[in-house]
Amino acid sequence: QEKSSRLSAALFGEDCEISHDQLYELLKYAALGKRHNATQPSWCRISHQSHLAGVVVIVLHEMSQLHFYKFYLQFRHLRKVFRHRFILTPSTNFFTSLYGEGANLKPQNTAQGLTSTGSECIPKNSDLQCDPIIRKYGIKTQGLTSYILTLEEQRKNDYPIKGSPGCKGYIYTECDQQRTDSSPLFGLDCEMCLTSKGNEVTRVSLVDAQGQCLLNELVKPESRVMNYRTRFSGVTKEMLLPVKTRLSDIQTRLKEMLPHDAVLVGHSLNADLQALEMIHPSVIDTSLLFARNEGRRFKLKFLAKAVLGKEIQCEQKLGHDPAEDARAALELAQFFIEQGPAKVAELNLEMLLTTEKLAEDSQNKAALQPQRCRIQKQLNEPPHLSKPCFLDCLQVTGQKPVLLGRQGLDSSGLCQSNLSTSNKQILQRALEDVPLSTFSIIQFSLGPEYIASHLLALCEQVRSKLTDMLTIYAGPFEEGFCLHSVKKEFGRCGPIQSLTMVPETYQPYVCIHYEVLEAAQLAVESLNGAEVAGSCIKVQRPVTAAMLDCDDLIKELELDVENEGVIYVAGLKKSLTEMDLQEEFSQLKDLETLFLPKDLQSGKHRNCCFLKFQESQSAADALEVINGWTLKGSKLRSRNALASGHLWRWIWQMNHSNGKQGGHILYEKMEQLSDSEQDLRKKVKKLDHHIKKLYRSLQNNTLCVVLFPGMSSRHGAQPGLGLMAVKDDGGRSA
C-alpha cells in the first residue's frame, strides 16, 4: 500500500505565530524534498515528503485574519478542511518572502503562461546529453554492476590491484564470486594519521546495506606518529594510548566479515584501501560515480547535503565520523542505482554547488563588515540575508511552477504569471494546469473596491463582536450581595478581564468580560438559572443586531476541524504548574498536548488550559471525567474548545489593544460597509466555493496552503493567517 504524506504541527500559544522565513522553510522542503538541499521545517513536520503529489499555495490578495473571522460563517470549506492554522506576520514583499529572491522564471506566451504539461515536466533527452553523468552512463536506470569500477578504471585511479608491484604484502579479500545486481553493498571509510611510514589507519568503519554499523574500531599505528590530524580524523593521542588493535587484526576481521560477492562503496575509496593495505576486486567510488567535467570531483559533504539532505562533517564536531561518512557514501550509491543517471543529472549539482559557494561568499563578506553591522543594529535594521529562490531549482529539473493571478494587482509580485481578469477565469485555468504541476501559486482577490477602504470599519466590527461574545450579564442579585462571591463563582469558568456593576438597572446586575470565548460560553451554559450569592440568576450575552447569529457562530466554532479533539478546562489553581497538570491529566487516554495559556504581557499563567487528544472520542470521554472533577481542592469545569489555537492569541491581542477608533470618518465607513455587506458576503461565499472546487480537483497527497497575507496601512498592521492540510483519500486533511 502506498504511503501517505502527513502534516503535523503543535500550533498553540506563541508557537502559532509563524514568520515568513518559517513559511519559506516549509514550502522549500515540501517542493524540493531532502534530496535538494532543503531540510525538514523546524515548526512542523511533513512525513513521507517524497510521496507528496504536489504543493498548491492559494493566496487571498490583501486579506487578513480579520477577514477570515469577519466572514467566518461564509468560509465554510476552509474551516471544515484545514486543520492546521497559524498567525502570519505581514510582509512588504509577500511573494519574495514565499519562495525567495532572484527568481528566473522564464515568461511564456500569453496562451500558455507559466504552466506545465505532462511532457514538459521531464526535460528532453537532448537537454541532458552534455551532462557528464549522462555521457558516462547513458539515461536508462541500470543495476549496481554497471557502476562497479573496471580494472582499467581502478588502475587509473590508484586502486591497489592484485599482482601489482606496489601492492606487495597487501591482503586480498578473496571475494572472487561473480557479482550480480543483487550482490550486497558495504560502505567503508577510514581515518588516517601521518606516521614516519606515511599514511596509517587510526579508525575503520564498515556499514551494511541497511546502514547498520558492523565495525567501528580504533587502530594503533605500527610506526611513530608525526601528526594525528585530529582536526579531520577526530583521533587524539590519548584515544590511542589504551588501544591494542593493530592493522593485521582489522585486515583479518574485514576478510572474515565480507561475503564472497561483496561490493565495497566509499568516497575516494582508493585511499582507504591503500591505508588498509588490502585489495578488493569490486568497488563503487562515489567521487567518480557522480561524474564532473575535467576530472573534478564533488566532496562527500556537499553530495550528502545536496542529494540526501544530510549534514555530515559538521564544524561543531571534532573531526569526521567514519561511520557517518561510510553510511553517506553507501546511501549516495543506493540513490544513484535506484533513481538512475537521468534523475541524478536533473538535480543539476553543478548549479547547486555554484549557488552554495555564492551564499558562502555572501556570508563571508557580511562577516568582514562588522562596523556596518553595528550601525545597522543601532538603526534597528538587521543585515539583509537573501533567500535563494527555490522555484529556479524546480525549473532546472523541468518542473515548471504554475503561477496564476489577477490583472491589476501591481503589488502581487506575479508580474511574469498568466494574469486573468476574474476569479472565475483563474479557477478555470487552475483546474486545467495545477494537476499537471508539482508547485503552484494561485492568487484570488475580492477586488480593490472591497478591501483597503473598508479595513478600519471592518476591524471595528470584528472587535465589537468579539467584545460582545466575551461579555456576559448576570443578575438580578439581592441588595448588598457579596461581589467577591460572584467573582469567585464566575472565575471558575475562566480568566476574567473585568467585572463591573451595571448602573442602569433597578435591581443589581453585573457585567463580566472574559479573556477567552470558552469561559463566557461556559458561564452561560452552567450558571444560567443557578443560585449565586443567594440569588437565582439569569446569565446572558448582550442583545445586539451583530449578536443575533452568535449561537450559530459558537456551534460552527465548536465543529471547526481545528478544534476537533480539543477540550477546554477551567477552575485550575494558578499555583499549578504545567508539569503538575501533565501529571494529573496523564491518566486520560490518548492525551497528545496540554496548552496552558498565559498573559502575553506579564507571562503569568491563567486558571484554564486546553487539552488536545489524538481521537475525538477520547476528548468526549475526557469531558465526562473532568466535569465536576476536584483537583487540589478546586472543582473543574470543561467544555469543547472554541478558540484553542491561533484564535486564542489573536483574541487576547484584540482584547488588549487600544480602544475603539472613533470619529465621523469611522461612522461614514461603517455605513458604507453596511450598504455593501450582503454583496461582500456573497463574494466571500463564492470565493470559498472556488477554493473548495480547486481543492477537490487536487490529487491525493497534495499539500495545500491557503494564505491571508495580512495588511499594513496607515491605520496599523493586520496580521495574516495561514491554513494548511495534506489532502487524503476522503478529500479531508491529513
UniProtKB/TrEMBL annotation:
<feature type="domain" description="RRM">
    <location>
        <begin position="565"/>
        <end position="643"/>
    </location>
</feature>
<keyword id="KW-0269">Exonuclease</keyword>
<dbReference type="GO" id="GO:0005634">
    <property type="term" value="C:nucleus"/>
</dbReference>
<dbReference type="InterPro" id="IPR000504">
    <property type="entry name" value="RRM_dom"/>
</dbReference>
<dbReference type="InterPro" id="IPR047021">
    <property type="entry name" value="REXO1/3/4-like"/>
</dbReference>
<keyword id="KW-0694">RNA-binding</keyword>
<dbReference type="InterPro" id="IPR035979">
    <property type="entry name" value="RBD_domain_sf"/>
</dbReference>
<dbReference type="GO" id="GO:0003723">
    <property type="term" value="F:RNA binding"/>
</dbReference>
<dbReference type="InterPro" id="IPR013520">
    <property type="entry name" value="Ribonucl_H"/>
</dbReference>
<dbReference type="GO" id="GO:0004527">
    <property type="term" value="F:exonuclease activity"/>
</dbReference>
<dbReference type="InterPro" id="IPR036397">
    <property type="entry name" value="RNaseH_sf"/>
</dbReference>
<dbReference type="Pfam" id="PF00929">
    <property type="entry name" value="RNase_T"/>
</dbReference>
<keyword id="KW-0378">Hydrolase</keyword>
<dbReference type="InterPro" id="IPR034922">
    <property type="entry name" value="REX1-like_exo"/>
</dbReference>
<dbReference type="InterPro" id="IPR012337">
    <property type="entry name" value="RNaseH-like_sf"/>
</dbReference>
<dbReference type="InterPro" id="IPR012677">
    <property type="entry name" value="Nucleotide-bd_a/b_plait_sf"/>
</dbReference>
<keyword id="KW-0540">Nuclease</keyword>
<dbReference type="Pfam" id="PF00076">
    <property type="entry name" value="RRM_1"/>
</dbReference>
<protein>
    <submittedName>
        <fullName>REXO5 exonuclease</fullName>
    </submittedName>
</protein>
